[in-house]
Amino acid sequence: MAFFRKKAAPPTASAHYLVAGGQIRSLADPENWLLELFGAGVSAIGLPTGRTAALKYSASAAAIRLISTACAECPIQTYRTSRGDRQRDASHQVEVLLNGFANPWTASPEFIRSMTERALLEGDAYARVIRLRSGKPVELHPLVGKVAVVIDEWTGEPTYEVSTENSGQVKLGFRDVLHLRSPTGAAPAKQAATAIETGLLLERATAELFRSGGAPSGILTVTGALTAKAAQDVLAAWKEQRLANPSGAAVLGSDAKWTPISFNSVDLETLELRRHQILDVLRFFGISPTLAGELADASLNNSEALGRQFLSFTLGPWLTAWISTISRTLIDPKDRGVIYAEAETSQITSADFKSFAEGLKALVNGPVMTANDARERLSLPRTPEGENLYPIQGAAPNATGGGNA
Asked: How many CB atoms sit inside 10 A of residue 332's CB?
């Protein structure tokens, strides 16, 4: 007697996983961040959403690229102070990790760029600090996926709960997580979500307009009342005639009139709307239109001023956020009085090297800066004879307050 057994059900989708950033992720009920990672996040009208939308729209993508790459171009350096004097400490682990390699497979500029980009898109970016038993930090590992920040209601101390598929939930202290927060308190890409969606709608409308040659290219007017079917018949006859004789003259009946529509007026209006929408998105990121490639109102003078404004008001807060989290996690509390980190911005400000060199020369030629101070700004080694301060011109040799001529 044959027995028929029910065929075993195939494994559910929850049994299949995807490795992401060293963590195993289920594909059964993918989270929004996973859908967006693969470009699958779309709205009801077919537009991308979330981080996908921000990276596809030209204005937000330019702002994200500009801020993240500018942060990566500013090396993080450490200095040791003693009795008012400071000297570079290139051997400190802050410089080893953030001015060299964050981990064996990621150079520091790429690590800083990707962390800044994630904070621009999500509002926060996290990296786990890997330490030796002695407490010395040796690697920085970006945390991908869910990270919950639990704040102690009495002390305000944060604890980070990281969810992983293999080891469940891991709790990390505040000194074990490099936490980069958006200076605005929220992700600029999320704050600008509505403006980005409107911009994508305008882009799609513009593309469809140009794709169809500015359709409708004209209006076919027929005297008298028309039913929907009659209108379709007239339009079909018109198209058939145009297809049969595309380069010849069109023949119309006595009760029909063709009025062409000018394409120039339509496309100029659409392009102007797109320009205003680009400016709206850039405001959320604190980026001037000139830096994002909108050169309609740019000139040599205001471009230089806008560059300084970008460093002070856009890039500066992000670099401050980096220094804050670095000081909290990578500098031992007992050393914070003598060791501090600083972002070197000369890569951004040295576009006009002649003015920069003249400024250094003026400071070195007076009782303000030594030659070694100037060499340090240029990333050059200090020299024994470069420690002297020059006196004020025309003054006595001791007019510098202890410096030597």
From this structure: 12
Residue 168, pLDDT > 80, answer no
Q: What distance separates the 2 farthest-apart alpha carbons in the chain?
A: 119
**Structure confidence at residue 304 (pLDDT):** 63
Q: What are the backbone dihedrals phi and psi of residue 385, each rounded to the nearest 5 degrees, phi first?
A: -85, 5
Is the preceding peptide bond at 216 cis, omega within 30 degrees of 0? yes
Measure the CA–CA gap between 222 and 207, rounded to whole angstroms.
30
- Comparing CA positions, the residue from 145, 149, 148, 188 lying closest to residue 166 is 145
Distance from C-alpha of 176 to C-alpha of 294, rounded to nearest angstrom:
42
Q: How far is CA 326 from CA 97, 112, 336, 343, 370, in A?
A: 10, 12, 11, 11, 29
Q: Which residue has the higher pLDDT, 221 or 278?
A: 278
Selection from 45, 48, 28 nearest residue 37 by Cα: 48
Q: What gap in Å lies between CA 23 and CA 37, rounded to an integer?
A: 15
Q: Is the pLDDT of residue 349 over 90?
A: no
262 close to 216: Cβ distance less than 8 angstroms: no
According to the model, what pLDDT value does residue 89 have? 87
Q: Which phi and psi (to 5°) does residue 107 adopt? A: -70, 150
Q: Say what the pTM is.
A: 0.69
> What pLDDT sits at residue 269?
64
Query: Alpha-carbon torsion 151, 152, 157, 163, what sign?
Result: negative
The residues pairing with 24 across neighbouring beta strands, listed in sequence order, are 19
Res 360: pLDDT:
79
Q: Please state, in angstroms and rounded to a whole number, the distance separating the CA atoms of residues 145 and 397.
A: 64
CB 280 within 8 A of CB 287: no
Dist CA 261 CA 269 (whole Å): 14
